[in-house]
Amino acid sequence: MSDSANPLLSTSALPYGLPDYSLIRPEHYLPAFEQAFDDHRREINAITFVRSMPTFENTLVPLERSGDLLGQVARTFYTVSSADATEPIQEIEEKLAPLMAAHQDSIQLDSALYWRIKTVYDQLDTLGLEGEDRYLVERHYREMTHAGAGLDDDAKARLTELNQRLSTLTTTFEKNLLADTNDLAVVFDDVAELDGLTEGELSAAAQAATDRGLEGKYVVTLTLFTGHPYLSSLTRRESRRRILEASRARGSRGGDHDNRGVLLEIVRLRAERAELLGYASHAAYITADETAGSPEAVHALLHKLAAPAARNAGREQAALQAIIDAEAEPFALEAHDWAFYTEKVRAAEYDLDTAALRPWFEAERVLQDGVFYAATQLYGITFTERTDLGAYHPDARVFEVHNADGSALGLFVLDLYTRDTKRGGAWMNSIVLQSELRGTDPVVVNNLNVSKPGPGKPTLLTLDQVTTLFHEFGHALHGLFATVTYPHFSGTAVFRDFVEFPSQVNEMWIYWPQVLENYARHVDTNEPLPAEIIAKLKASEAFNQGFATSEYLAAAWLDQVWHSVSAAESAGDIDVAEFEASALSAIGLDNPAIPTRYSSTYFAHVFSGGYSAGYYSYIWSEVLDADTVEWFTENGGLTPANGQRFRDRLLGVGGSKDPLAAYRDFRGRDAEIQPLLERRGLTA
């Protein structure tokens, strides 16, 4: 295939460099990657072959210019492989994984490049570099050192082998999970089995069945996390049990899609790699280059929260059991009952049925009059749908974003609905990175997994899905607003345990009166959500936080314990189920009625995503988030002045500044934990 015939090897003619997915075929990807690898290698050689002594201008600047084609091709492909992973795309990803790992190592472990960067780094105090320039040198030196660039040749060879094998294993883990999640979707023959679901949810289940050739039946697809939104409303206990049982079985049933052996090899190789790099464990290796600094700091926070969370969950469980005991045929509460009876307690204590609120959360209204409206009020930005621009799937919609002064900011792509080719969960990613050096503006994507109703039916969101939409858009704002010179710092390129902070802050506008009144309108009558219901929602914000905190902390702890084993310990025989049980018992979160948010065999965040030894980052970032919400509340909330300060001092700097220094610049001090404890009801 000639370069001219491959659309990935020519500049896109679409606005903002949006790839023209209508022209791209699966067979275009691997040749484009091969060309991009070669181009990047030549660009690095041009830096290292320079005979003059290293300077910022002849080493760091060309390094930031290098790899442009590779970045474009990779972001184009991985956007598709996560959101529309057809069989040909999955095959390409499997072939690509070790190639990509090998290429990345060839750059990160390049001795000549490392020497040049180290030489500049060693002279930092005499070069007069400031701000983003100085931080760029510090980060490249730190990252290459952390990656193993200072190792001897034999150690580098083994490190490269480990990285390539790990890239293959993590791809296999995700492929197995996607296949098993699809296989385990629960089929119901009779609509009566789904009593309690709304008309829209039944329509979605019927449509999912039709899509699988099961006309007349109903299919409930599984979410990435253990629980399922339908568990709170299904009246039939057996239906709830079937859904939760299917969810918890993923990746652990034996056969081709079993992930137990895959994850054990991942754990073992990560431990070996950490030891090779001079660390006691993978957790120690990861946290050394995060704001946490060490596993001990993470463990201290998790332990501090676990005991009060378990205590609160115990009280919540007793309240649920009391309701069950009053029924005609009482039984012992089990995990699949928790969400259903929680809604009964919520109704009894707060006279509030969250499932009945869905008609007030019509998806388009939540997006336009909630998510976009809050951003416009706070930052002055506006959104125009570009129906003339196609994305990678017909369901993905493209919006052009402008600043308050009318200047162009970038593109926002929303892909709302679930499908069998999309991985579970919700996420943000970038297709094009902002960089003044390269002259590019951002193109960012939000993906969710909302069930798509049948034709003509409105998409009604749960309160959790509303929260997810606001959350992921917080990431999108980070990607859109970051204004940096160097692509290394673009968008959300910050420490993993800081990246969730902006997205969590954006959730605060869900209940902000001005925003809520604007978007929470009944789908049929346009009546606003009644004031008494809003008051009840606010009064119940800490409700069920014992459960929510416990299930999250259990998953964060599992991640830490898996990645705290040494290379020697990981070499032994490990039973995955027994390991989980022992880990949860050690921190007091082994309540059978509260399963961990993710069990190991479907814990995609840590075994196929970028959160290994880093799932703690959500609660770590929430300390900053809760403290920031307090600041907004004290300073007038949804005002342009507050938005400008948050944009300029935090979102706008991307990764070009130490994140905690940026936080201090915004807040005037370090974050305090008390607002988080109060939010989650964890004070004494």
Provide a descriptive summary of the structure in words:
The protein is mainly α and 684 residues long. The chain folds into 4 domains: 138 residues, Glutathione S-transferase Yfyf (Class Pi), Chain A, domain 2 (Up-down Bundle), CATH 1.20.1050.40; 66 residues, no CATH class; 165 residues, Orthogonal Bundle (Neurolysin, domain 3), CATH 1.10.1370; 242 residues, Neurolysin, domain 3 (Orthogonal Bundle). Helix content is 54%, strand content 6%. The protein is built from 27 helices and 7 strands. Strands 3-4-5-7-6 form a 5-stranded mixed beta sheet, with helices on both faces. Strands 1-2 form a two-stranded antiparallel sheet. β4 and β5 form a beta hairpin.
Brief sketch in words of this structure:
This protein has 684 residues and is mainly α. It is built from 27 helices and seven strands. 54% of the residues lie in helices and 6% in strands.
What spatial form do the alpha-carbon principal axes imply? globular
CATH topology of the largest domain: Neurolysin, domain 3
- The largest sheet has its strands arranged as 3-4-5-7-6
Distance between the ends: 67 Å
Number of strands: 7
Q: So what's the oligomer here? A: single chain
**Relative helix content:** 40-55%
Largest sheet: 5 strands, mixed
For the record, the CATH architecture of the largest domain stands as: Orthogonal Bundle
Classify the secondary structure makeup into a structural class. mainly alpha
Please tally the helical runs, counting DSSP H or I stretches of 4 or more residues. Answer: 27
Task: Report low-confidence residues grouped into runs of 5 or more.
Answer: none
CATH class of the largest domain: Mainly Alpha
Mean pLDDT: 96
The overall number of domains is 4
Radius of gyration: 25 Å
Q: Into which percentage range does the β-strand content fall?
A: 5-15%
